[in-house]
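In response to reviewer comment 3 from the previous cycle, which asked for concrete evidence that the modeling workflow produces usable outputs, we include below a single protein chain processed end to end. The sequence was submitted unchanged, and the resulting structure tokens are shown without manual editing.
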Amino acid sequence: MTGQSLLNSRNKAGLSQLDAAAVLGLSQPMLSLVENGKRNVTEEVARLAVKKLHANPTELPKTSSCRSDDSQLASDLGALEYPGFAYMQSEPRNPAELLLDALDRPDLDVRVAEGLPWVPMRYPDLDWDWLTDEAKLRNRQNRLGFVVALSQKMAELGSKADVVKSLAPVLQELEDARLAKEDTFCQDSWPPSQRAYAHEKRSDLAAHWNLDTRLSEVDLAHYAAS
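The workflow returned the following structure tokens.
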């Protein structure tokens, strides 16, 4: 997060520099230095800005090394305002980091997996360069492509033209990097019979991304209204 984005968030929140400094645990002179780019925005201040000033979580720092469990990922989605886990909260997390963490897991709770396509719809301005590069390093571009494709379809249904436009170049890049190898959508521990059933029943979109999964556009129709 930059000092300018912190300043923009403070202005949108309608807070004076003095009031915002108190919320962020800073002195007013220090906040002035931060907003003017003379001091860095610390991770703690950035997270407080997201929680208290409603700053964009896409500006939070990212790491590619974390591995969260299902419960934590559900709480992370709740912190990003995903309705399905609104009752669960955690410290705010960069949505690009959350997606990478979830998609790189061999197995994922079905409810969490269903929540992932909501993230690009809600945060279409996330750091796609970082996320696509990290996904390719792990050979997870098909999983990410499936998520983005679902997001775009739901955005189309919801008449969110700006989101559709933002996701189009991302989807094209992932399309160009699409792998021929068959995979699951974070359900690697399925027995052969269950995977074979998912393969038989998968949607055209899942087949395009070479994923054995029962998740489809039909399951996410409620996204269009969110």
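DSSP finds 13 helices and two strands in the chain. We consider this sufficient to address the reviewer's concern, and the full set will be provided in the supplementary archive.
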